[in-house]
Design brief:
The chain is α+β, with helices and mostly antiparallel strands. The chain has one domain. The chain has a three-stranded antiparallel sheet.
Amino acid sequence: MSRLVRLSQANESELIFRVNTYYSWKHRNRYPELFVKVGRTLFIDLDELDKLFEKGRQKKAIRKH
């Protein structure tokens, strides 16, 4: 089950970046797997955000070797 957080009501402490960064990503269609839109409400999927960062960590670890 996905952990969805309404972006307009998200605490900046539970997100890595500022809320405006996520709105920018959505507008530019970057990382579309992060966003779920229900009606006019935009949610961010925290599980997908965790996967994205884990993938980034793995790439960084491979480059170090």
